[in-house]
Amino acid sequence: PKLLPAPAPEPEMSRKQGFTLLEMVLVLLLVGVLASLGTLSLAPAVKGYLQARDSLRLSHKARYALTWLSQDIRSMETLHQSGPADLQYQRADTIFWVCLVENTLRMSDTGTRPDHETGHILLDGVQDFSLRYMVDGASVTEASSLEGLGCIELDLTLSPSAARSSAYHFTTRVHPRNSQSTTAPPPVHMP
User: Which residues lie closer than 8 Å to 107 by C-beta, 6 or more apart?
Assistant: First the structure.
C-alpha cells in the first residue's frame, strides 16, 4: 500500500479567515460619517415637523377660543362696558367680562373683572388681545351700547414658542344679533 504524502506545514504568517483591526476601524469610521450626514439631513425635517405641530396646536387653541367668544358675543343682549382690551356684556341673566390678564385670556361670568386667580381661562400664552368696534360705520376703541354697533373685531396674538420665533396672529369679526346698527348684516330668519 502506498502512503499518501504528508501535508505541507502551514507558514506561521498565513492569513486566517476574518477581518483585521484596521479594516474594522475603517468600516466603523465610514459608518459614523454616513450616520452624521444622515442626521444633518434629517434635522431640518424634524425642525419643520415640530414647527408645524406647534403651529397647528396653537391654531386650534386660538380658533376654539375665538369661536367660543364669537358665539357668545353674537348672542349678547346688552353691552355694559367696552374698551380696547376688555368687554363686559350681558346674555340672559348673566353678566360676562372678557379681558387679558397677564398672558392669559380670561372670562368671568360673575359680572366682575377677572384677575389672575379668578375667571375661566379661555387661552394662555397670549401676547396681545385687542378689540375694535364699528359704531355707525366708524372704527372706535370703545362702545357704550349695542345701538349702532355693527361689529366687534377681535385681534389675538399668541406668544412665540421655542419651535417658532415669530408670533401667531388671529383676527375675527363678530356681528351681534341684537344690534340695531344699519351697518350690521340683516338677521337670518329660519323658516
Answer: 69, 96, 97, 98, 114, 119, 120, 122
Cell of 84: 380696547
β-sheet bridge partners, residue 157: 128, 169
**String of b and e for 90-116 (b: at least 16 CB within 10 Å)?**
ebeeebbbbbbbeebbbbbeeeebbee
Report the C-alpha gap between 168 and 62 in whole angstroms.
Answer: 9
pLDDT tens digit string along 147-191?
Answer: 888 889 999 999 877 666 778 899 999 998 876 554 444 444 443
pTM here is 0.68
CB 58 within 8 A of CB 125: yes
Is 82 within 8 Å of 133 (Cβ atoms)? yes
Q: What is the DSSP letter of 73?
A: H
